[in-house]
Each structure stands twice: as C-alpha cells, then as structure tokens.
Design a protein that fits this description.
This protein is α/β, with parallel strands linked by helices. The protein contains eight helices and nine strands. α3 crosses α5. It binds S-adenosyl-L-homocysteine.
Length: about 240
C-alpha cells in the first residue's frame, strides 16, 4: 500500500484536504495510508524546541538539523531509504506531473515540511533529500505544499480514479493543457438573459472530428497560457 510519511511541526493539519472526497475515501479504504510525525517529539530541550536563530544573522528562526535527523530516522530506521525523501521548499525544483507519476509508482514517500525561515541545509544534504517547490511563491509552511504533492500522487494510484483514461487525457499528459469542457444545459441562459451555446461539434456525434477539435483547442489554450510547454513538446504539430 502506498504510504505518505509526513514530518511536520503541525501534525494536526493532516489529513486536511486529504481526508475528503475521492482521496479521503481511498484513505478510508486503505488504498493508501498516511503517517504524520511531529517534529516536536524530537525537540532538543525540555520544551521540545525545534528551531534556533540563523548563523550569520537575519530575521526569523531555522529548524535544527539534529531534530530533523531524529524525526527522519524514526521513519527510515538508519537503513538506506527505500522511498524518496523530499523537502518541500520554494528553493527546490518545480513540481511537475511527471514527478507525481514517478512518486506514485514507488512504495510511498517521506515529505519534510519546513516552517519559519526553513531547515538547516546540512541535514537536507546529508540525508539526500530531493528539494521540491510547488510554485514561484512563498508559503508560511510546507504542509499545504505536501498536501498538494500527496493529492497529486494518490489520484494516480490505479485503484483510485475510476477511469484511468481520464488521467491520460488531462493537462500536461502530453505537454498540452486540457481542452475546454462543457455539460448540460445545451443552451445556458445566463443572468443577463444571454444564450450561451455548446459548440455544435460536441453534439454532432462525430468522434473523429471531436477528437480533432479538442486537440486544436488544447494547442490554442496552451499557446495562450503556457507557450513554454509547447517548446518542450515533440508530439504536437502546429
Ligand atoms: N526563507 C525561505 C522561505 C521559508 S517558507 C525562502 O526564502 O526560501 C517556510 C516553509 O514553507 C519552507 O521551509 C517550505 O517547507 C514551505 N514552503 C514555502 N513556500 C513553498 C513552496 N513554494 N513550495 C514548497 N514549500 C514551500
């Protein structure tokens, strides 16, 4: 069973969003499991403190390496880790769908959530943590970022999403964003009384034409919002 081990100063923030909907149902059905490890259980003094002021000066506090090492060892037990060790940090490599595919195919993952100014670099390097960012912005802690990563992995587990085809057709699966989606009513009269129609092609029943239309729309949307993705795409002819 795929297992997420989360090291955090705030274990009460979990399962958070991971306890709801399809992901929460899969958790209840033991398709995946979650273990949260509190950094404060491995604190360095009688108040179980986990942080200290940064060498070199500057604002804020930094989480100590000895505290993090003890917390990690409580999960991997001095052996070489069989699961990826990942530190969530804005200074890391940008998280991509391909990383989620990769992680979801392992036995599980260990995620380390930072707080304050972050974590002493020595322990990140010594224990061989990969460093991953969920985007070019700064959050107050790694907990939301960890939930993003776990949610993205769990939905890829074979038993979780009913239609595995829907995973294949999604945004990023071939360097394209997804085409626009429509549902009922066929003609939606909005609050200004305007009629909004579904594109005729989608109700034509011509599967080949629909496929082509969706592909073209995908390229159009990608060109508009993420032209950088098209540069890396080999499959698309424009
Ligand atoms: N001083 C750091 C920011 C620390 S933010 C810097 O400038 O890089 C505190 C914690 O929030 C980090 O240790 C990290 O675990 C988490 N965090 C903040 N933004 C994040 C992001 N974009 N992706 C992943 N984790 C993030």
């Amino acid at each position: 069973m795929w297992k997420a081990n989360i090291i955090t100063a705030y274990p009460e923030m979990f399962p958070g969003v991971l306890g709801h909907s399809i992901i929460g149902k899969a958790l209840n059905e033991n398709i995946w499991s979650l273990d949260t490890i509190s950094l404060h259980d491995f604190g360095y003094n009688d108040r179980n403190s986990i942080d200290d002021s940064p060498f070199g000066g500057g604002p804020g506090m930094v989480i100590r390496p000895d505290v993090v090492e003890r917390a990690v060892m409580s999960v991997i037990d001095n052996k070489e880790s069989k699961i990826p060790l990942v530190y969530m940090t804005p200074s890391g490599k940008a998280l991509k769908q391909e990383d989620l595919v990769n992680f979801s195919q392992k036995k599980g993952i260990l995620l380390l959530c930072g707080r304050f100014e972050g974590i002493d670099t020595r322990v990140i390097e010594n224990l061989g943590f990969e460093q991953i960012s969920i985007g070019d912005y700064v959050l107050t802690g790694g907990e939301v970022a960890a939930q993003v990563l776990v949610e993205g992995c769990v939905r890829l587990l074979p038993e979780v999403l009913g239609h595995s085809k829907s995973v294949l057709e999604e945004s990023f699966s071939d360097n394209l964003l997804e085409y626009p989606q429509y549902t009922r009513p066929k003609v939606w009269v909005d609050k200004n009384g305007k009629e909004n129609h579904v594109p005729d092609i989608l109700i034509s029943g011509h599967h080949e034409k629909i496929k082509k239309w969706r592909k073209n729309k995908s390229v159009e949307v990608t060109k508009k919002f993420r032209p950088d993705l098209l540069k890396g795409s080999k499959k698309v002819k424009i």
